[in-house]
């Protein structure tokens, strides 16, 4: 599979799906759901220019420190952490880049994830401000908060329906703006959910991502997962 990918006989999308499968990740287990990278950082321009390297996220860094400003805090947290009982090892992040709650967060508008989310939240929808309501706002929150380290799920590259509230769920309204949470707010360069998926998938298969995807794979599936390389890469999880 690696050789096929290097020879460009299979797409970046296919390669990531195969890696997830080999790593034991599966659509049948929310706690081991397939994980995909955030690949863009430009969610505000009118047009998405895939020939411009600056629209892409730095794939060599864990999502928690893509914003350089967070790196210092994350490093200090690791260096100053000490478990009085000596059981818990030092870590950079207390949460994970992929977990069941995160999958339900992204897929809240689609069954069976809606029902699972409601069960998780003791029988009701979580407060609207904490829900997935906007792609630009979700990215901004990642940049501002080193404790939020969610990567993406494969649906961001092929499933426009998860961005639409086709079932008409009452997801509440945001506290400050009083805006009702309905369909997911898209980046300005996307004119519809289908257009977002089309451009996002195109970005995944772009020259820049093809040249840098292995750096992210090292963090998630490769040698930077644990040990000294993980410490150096600010990639140690609780």
TrEMBL record:
Residues 1-238 form the BEACH domain. One of its GO terms (cellular component) is membrane. It holds the Pfam family Beach. This is NBEL1 protein. SUPFAM superfamilies: BEACH domain (SSF81837). SMART domains: Beach. GO terms for biological process: intracellular protein localization. GO terms for molecular function: protein kinase binding. Keywords: Repeat, WD repeat.
């Amino acid at each position: 599979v690696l050789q096929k990918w290097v020879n460009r006989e299979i797409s970046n999308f296919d390669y990531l799906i195969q890696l997830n499968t080999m790593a034991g990740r599966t659509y049948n287990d929310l706690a081991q759901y397939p994980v995909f990278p955030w690949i863009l950082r430009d969610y505000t321009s009118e047009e998405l220019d895939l020939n411009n390297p600056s629209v892409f996220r730095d794939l060599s860094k864990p999502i928690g420190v893509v914003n350089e400003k967070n790196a210092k805090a994350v490093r200090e947290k690791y260096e100053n952490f000490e478990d009085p009982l000596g059981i818990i090892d030092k870590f950079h992040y207390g949460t994970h880049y992929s977990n069941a709650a995160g999958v339900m967060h992204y897929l809240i508008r689609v069954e069976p994830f809606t029902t699972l989310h409601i069960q998780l939240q003791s029988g009701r929808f979580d407060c609207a401000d904490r829900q997935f309501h906007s792609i630009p706002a979700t990215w901004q929150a990642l940049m501002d908060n080193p404790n939020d380290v969610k990567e993406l799920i494969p649906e961001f590259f092929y499933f426009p329906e998860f961005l639409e509230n086709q079932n008409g769920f009452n997801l509440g309204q945001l506290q400050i703006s009083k805006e009702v949470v309905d369909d997911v707010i898209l980046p300005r360069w996307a004119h519809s959910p289908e257009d977002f998926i089309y451009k996002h998938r195109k970005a995944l298969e772009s020259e820049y991502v093809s040249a840098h995807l292995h750096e992210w794979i090292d963090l998630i599936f490769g040698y930077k997962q644990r040990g000294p390389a993980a410490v150096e890469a600010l990639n140690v999880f609780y």
